[in-house]
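FIELD: query
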Amino acid sequence: MPQIHNHTFDELSLGQQAQRSHTVTLQDLRRFAAASGDYNPLHLDPDYAATTPFGGCIAHGMFSGGLISAALAMQLPGPGTIYLGQSLSFRQPVHVGDTLTVELTVSALEPRRRRVTLDCTVVNQEGRKVVTGTAEVIAPVERQSVTVEHDAIPAE
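FIELD: result
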C-alpha cells in the first residue's frame, strides 16, 4: 500500500503546484450518485443522456469538485488539511471516458492562521478547462505519513 506525505504550512510556497489525474467511468458516477443522492438520469442513464445535447452521460459538477478535494487531501497540502471553502465555475461538460487532471497552485499564504488559498483548475485530455476556481484550506502544522488503502471501496 502506498504511503503519502503532507506538506506543512511552513513547507508551502507561493506558486507551488500539484497535479492528480483520473479517468471518469460510469461506475464513478453511480458511486457519486449513491453518496450524494443525485440520481439525475443525465448522469446515469446512457439511453436518456444520448437524447440530450450532451449526447451521453456527463459527470455531476461536484464530481470534479470531489477530485479537487482529493488532490488537496492527498497531495497539496495533503493529510491533515482542513478544507474551509471553495468557489468553482463549471465551464465544460465532463463526459464518461474523459481523463481529468486537477492542477493546484498555491496563490496566497496567511501565516497567522495557517490559511492557504489555492487556484484550482481541472482540464480534460484535450487540455480544455472544465472547472476553474479557488479553494481555501488550513494547512497542517505537523508532518504526517499515511498509508492509503485504495481497495477500501468494494467493487459492485
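FIELD: remark
The radius of gyration is 17 Å.
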